[in-house]
Amino acid sequence: MPYLRTWRTSRPPRQTVSPSESHVSRPCISKLVSDRYSDVIVLSEMISYYDISGCYILRPWSYKIWELIQEWFNVQIRKLDVENAYFPLFVSQDRLEKEKDHVEGFAPEVAWVTKSGEDDLAAPIAIRPTSETIMYPAFSDWIRSHRDLPLKLNQWSNVVRWEFKDPTPFLRTREFLWQEGHTAHASFDDANVMVRKALDLYRRVYEELLAIPVVPGYKTEKEKFAGGHSTTTVEAYIPVSGRAIQGATSHHLGQNFGKMFDINYQDEKGETQTAWQTSWGLTTRTIGVMIMVHGDDTGLVLPPRVAPLQCVIVPITSKSCPIEKLAPYCGSILESLQEKDIRVKLDDRLIYNPGWKYAHWEQKGVPIRIEVGPRDLEKRGARLVVRFGGEKVDVGVDGLADAVAAKLDEVQKGMFENAVKFRNDHLVKVTEWKDFVPNLELHNLVLTPWCGGEHQDWEEWVKDKSREESLANAGLEGEADTTATSVAAKTLCIPFDQPDLPEGTKCIASGMPATCWVMWGRSY
Amino acid sequence: MPYLRTWRTSRPPRQTVSPSESHVSRPCISKLVSDRYSDVIVLSEMISYYDISGCYILRPWSYKIWELIQEWFNVQIRKLDVENAYFPLFVSQDRLEKEKDHVEGFAPEVAWVTKSGEDDLAAPIAIRPTSETIMYPAFSDWIRSHRDLPLKLNQWSNVVRWEFKDPTPFLRTREFLWQEGHTAHASFDDANVMVRKALDLYRRVYEELLAIPVVPGYKTEKEKFAGGHSTTTVEAYIPVSGRAIQGATSHHLGQNFGKMFDINYQDEKGETQTAWQTSWGLTTRTIGVMIMVHGDDTGLVLPPRVAPLQCVIVPITSKSCPIEKLAPYCGSILESLQEKDIRVKLDDRLIYNPGWKYAHWEQKGVPIRIEVGPRDLEKRGARLVVRFGGEKVDVGVDGLADAVAAKLDEVQKGMFENAVKFRNDHLVKVTEWKDFVPNLELHNLVLTPWCGGEHQDWEEWVKDKSREESLANAGLEGEADTTATSVAAKTLCIPFDQPDLPEGTKCIASGMPATCWVMWGRSY
């Protein structure tokens, strides 16, 4: 059994620690986690590896989760009058390079098409790393008057970012699937409302569908979107690796792109104005975060709302009780669940025995298994076995569908509460530098007073300093490779929800007066 | 008004003509049709042009049609136990070139990525023109035993074929959206059943959703999929251009790819066998065909089942009847239609007058307009104006939603019957070569006796000969450019539904004994 390796490391209770108590050597854990992650996603049939680095095959078991997220998201954005569209995969060099900060942010990762068949193209053509420069010239054509605003479009597509960091399925891939919303508005404030509404949908995807708590907030200047005015983000925490991860971002683009691409309109007074814009994206990374947060030693644990199958019925057949005897009864249970729109499958395959099926569906994370044996048939009942927590309940067949529906809701809620508890246990406030690294190592998420978004140098200082101290703690002074870099602390966000900041509080890095609290962590 | 140019040319009744009666000069009509097509797709807000040749922007008005097709198709394939998945955009040169006939078919159109950022890649990487070579190595990993068969996957994605023929939005584009189904089976016959089921779904997309009749049949050897065993197709007819168009294809791949990619399994006796495979694809071309078949002088005419809006409510406001007076009544009509799941919009914008709105929604092809003026309010009714055929009916508000639903069904049926009639009027049987070109020119679709699929040379002969005669008829002898090529006749398919073939019937080209009827036309 490959499942016996430790997947979820046990964690101490929440408390602030002083330097001497710190002793966790992160790099070793990371390797274990990443091996285990690979096992889980392959064995659960979510991912197959592919012969081009950074590209992976999304098998039906993961792709269906993406479809369920899409379905929910489409309903929500329709309520915001956002319409779906599709723009080209390719962008010319001229266009891509029009917004200077933007291209600087993406240029090193752009994949270029230079040939078709045997022939060189007249000019190289980029594959979209994101679609601002593809969409906005069209926005410029479509928008003439204030009557044409707001313009709200969304696109589901693949994008390519040819990164050289270690690729990880779902979390960091060279091609990934996402939605990108792009809107144009008549005022800064209208755009801002859109930015926050989109971000709130992302929060809901994580919290309501994936059962993962997130911290919504602003990115610092250093971490914001290339070419934008400001970036908002939802940040999640992954207990098993002790790392934070950016869940999704929603950008206020200000008028930067509007000016570059001439997205102008006549206002009510007939005067020419430049539109205010937003862009916001959610990727298949969501699935990876979900796997990491909820997975256990046996494999996947899927939140019911995004489980491709919420329930699997396994007939307990034997020599004395062949499938023919159980089939009609199992069939009637199947139907009663389908009538309640529960995603359910009857696994009546003869080539596998019940034990094999239990292990199979547990590994794939199906929230509820319904066992139906001869005794259940006799007693007109069935046994529910819950993947999250392992509860077993015998239920009568009459109320079965309702009981399953209620249990699925309960599991969804329980998984979220559990994840909230874990996250909260790993988030501490620290106000002095000497306590920073020890708490980062033990608790992983650290909230500190901060002197403000403009002071990028101090952000870099924390990064360097935290890396140095961490490596020293682990006895790895002087290391400079990727593993070493990954122990540095990064700002995750300036949470919208700010704790009190007493007058006179000092920034943890600069010692200057603090203007806000900022959240730090080691990040993917 | 740009709409006054002739869009649908009037057609003579069905009859076989002799050479002297032929007089249609196709190239000129094509230019007119293509200009008109561009106007319609831009003015109806389906397409915006883009600065890379062969790439277009699918605006919400066309993309929604694609989503409606997707939704229907997903439901159908689920019934066939086909699951959705997602495979990478990229394929290495080695893999792409593994099946020789296949790569020969696609190589000239392949787009190659050779750089990332400023750096050259170690080896060029192709963008998928289709995904056989991307998927099948994974099939080889997943398939071990007869228990793993059948394997049935589908993917919704973009593909790239860098063609140099004249690009046309929807119909011939360098990037397009499609679904590609890929399956593996234990026998030739199982694969064959899958091929035909997929093709029947394509027939239903055209006939039931898009209201376009198609002829299902086999492609000839010359026209079949590169690397496959045989190709089936649904062929549509476009009255306005007099051309046929391949609607979608479903391929029996035999064991060709299975052998190349080692897709082997142990059968029940423990012997190693090679899987039999299929692949089948439907593209955004569907939307272009729909526009061409149903469009009229005013713009789009959308079949209700794929119309993004099936119905638009236009309040007839005036000085004496401001919107406030009509709003509650219009709102209640809106709700009653929404309750019946009719896709409806209330166009209560104040900045446009009713006349502008009529023209706007007609151009966009909305099936039914509901006009609500002060007299309708008084009489508790509304006026339905039907886009297809122009009928106007006054209906009482009580049965309005039912009346609209019934009218939408009627329109869907009427559009299909109309298209069937048009197609049938342009399909004739011809048994002697001298009648071939005249009937091709007048009727466009010609069914002839044929000596069989293997005789590729005779197919080429008909192509050359028909081009020569057509150009001579049009006074364009010796022309060899693209326009001239496009007047040649091509085999469309060998229809499944074969007319009687009396003993002794001769092939129209070779004079050898005929083995079947084949359908010819000028094709996109």
UniProtKB/TrEMBL annotation, chains A, B:
Q: Which reaction does it catalyse?
A: tRNA(Pro) + L-proline + ATP = L-prolyl-tRNA(Pro) + AMP + diphosphate
Polar residues bias (residue ranges) = 7-22
Where along the sequence do coiled-coil regions lie? none
Where is the segment annotated Disordered?
1-22
Provide the E.C. number(s) assigned to this enzyme. Answer: 6.1.1.15
The molecular function terms of the Gene Ontology recorded here are: ATP binding; proline-tRNA ligase activity
Q: Which biological process, per GO, is one annotated for this protein? A: prolyl-tRNA aminoacylation
InterPro entries per record: aa-tRNA-synt_IIb (IPR002314), aa-tRNA-synth_II (IPR006195), aa-tRNA-synth_II/BPL/LPL (IPR045864), Anticodon-bd (IPR004154), Anticodon-bd_dom_sf (IPR036621), Pro-tRNA-ligase_IIa (IPR002316), Pro-tRNA-ligase_IIa_arc-type (IPR004499), Pro-tRNA_ligase_II_C (IPR016061)
Which Gene Ontology CC terms are recorded? Answer: aminoacyl-tRNA synthetase multienzyme complex; cytoplasm
Q: Which residue intervals define the domain Aminoacyl-transfer RNA synthetases class-II family profile in the entry?
A: 63-303
Its signal peptide is none
Q: Which UniProt keywords apply?
A: Aminoacyl-tRNA synthetase, ATP-binding, Ligase, Nucleotide-binding, Protein biosynthesis
| Pfam families linked to this entry | HGTP_anticodon, ProRS-C_1, tRNA-synt_2b
Q: Which SUPFAM superfamilies match?
A: C-terminal domain of ProRS, Class II aaRS ABD-related, Class II aaRS and biotin synthetases
- What's this protein's name? proline--tRNA ligase
Q: Which organism is it from?
A: Thalassiosira oceanica (Marine diatom)
What are the top taxonomic ranks of the organism? Eukaryota, Sar, Stramenopiles, Ochrophyta, Bacillariophyta
